[in-house]
Amino acid sequence: MSDLSRPAGPKIIAVANQKGGVGKTTTSINLAAALVEQGKRVLLVDLDPQGNASTGLGIDVDDREYTTYELLLDDIALDKVVMKTSYDDLYIVPATVDLSSADVELLSAEKRSFLLHDALRQTQIDTFNLDYILIDCPPSLNLLTVNAMIAAHSVLVPLQSEFFALEGLSQLMMTIREVRQSGNKELRIEGVVLTMYDKRNNLSQQVEHDARSNLGELVFKTVIPRNVRVSEAPSFAMPVLSYDPQSKGAMAYRSLAKEIIKNNVA
Ligand code: ADP
Ligand code: MG
């Protein structure tokens, strides 16, 4: 069944949480790879100046000629900034440290919150025939993250199964409400995914309980376990789905991808 609520074109999901180290980049890379495994064509936009998503997918810093910075601030065609990865049907717009100055430079730009929105809606996007665009956001609720939320159809929130996990969530939800009022009325919450979950740890269980009782259906059934294979994969420049396809981490991201595909047609 086709999704009548959404116009044709890729579904754009911003992966956001202003806390660092909660699994945004890990989720962006592995969810992208898992969606590709399900037969989808995916573009990952690296919106973090640290460029970890680009590195994690094996894009050498020296090869990052055009980046998210140029996509936002220079008038550059999409096919110049989109790079193929070594995986079929998986594309990336890489980032470098240059992007760290973008947040300030954006301030003086006209339509400063809409730059990514407009860039991703160039007609050229059609030539890639994408099903999904994932945006790996920086650990901040700055103008870059706002650009991601204005550009996106939905926000996916990784929540680390740690003490204080839910702290900061109200601020994130407030930003989402502000974005709805200031230009993206239709912005939805794709869901909250618990990351680095350790089922033997009471704290993980407590965080899960609190998240599910506070957020209900918004929390994905799938939880991403803490799994050493997940943390090793980026140093081999691979998604865990390629590095160790049968690992618990790979299987969890596969299951998350299936939930997201289902979300789309529900
Ligand atoms: P963020 O992008 O939110 O800053 P990352 O995705 O970079 O967070 O993750 C932070 C650290 O946690 C990284 O070193 C990453 O390898 C590790 N990590 C993330 N998810 C897992 C997991 N499921 N199991 C083990 N380590 C993980
Ligand atoms: Mg990151």
UniProtKB/TrEMBL annotation:
It comes from Sulfitobacter sediminis. InterPro entries: AAA_dom, DNA_Partitioning_ATPase, P-loop_NTPase. Residues 11-189 form the AAA domain. Pfam families: AAA_31. This is ParA family protein. CDD domains: ParAB_family (cd02042). Transmembrane segments: none annotated. SUPFAM superfamilies: P-loop containing nucleoside triphosphate hydrolases.
